[in-house]
Specification:
Oligomer: single chain
Number of helices: 2
Number of strands: 0
Order of helices and strands: HH
Mean pLDDT: 83
Shape: elongated
Strand content: under 5%
Largest sheet: none
Low-confidence stretches: none
């Protein structure tokens, strides 16, 4: 049993932040040399991607709930009024 609902937008945001942290660490260690301006678009793009995933998952959950409620209301022997 799940202890909480899965939130894919937060998972994507967390992965983007871990990637940025790894990039900063590699740059600080001297293993990777990139300008600091590289990280700003990656950060903003990651936030945009997380927001998009959150919006899509919300729409899917909302649609699934409406479809289930509609199926329950139209079932034979149902006492619910559609």
């Amino acid at each position: 049993m799940l202890r909480h609902e899965f939130r894919p937008g937060r998972a994507v945001a967390g992965l983007v932040m871990l990637t940025l942290a790894a990039g900063y660490a590699a740059d600080a260690a001297g293993a990777w040399h990139v300008p600091w301006t590289f990280f700003a678009p990656v950060f903003l793009g990651g936030l945009w991607l997380a927001a998009t995933v959150t919006w899509v998952s919300y729409r899917v959950r909302r649609r699934r709930g409406a479809r289930t409620a509609s199926a329950e209301a139209s079932a034979p022997g149902s006492t619910r009024v559609p």
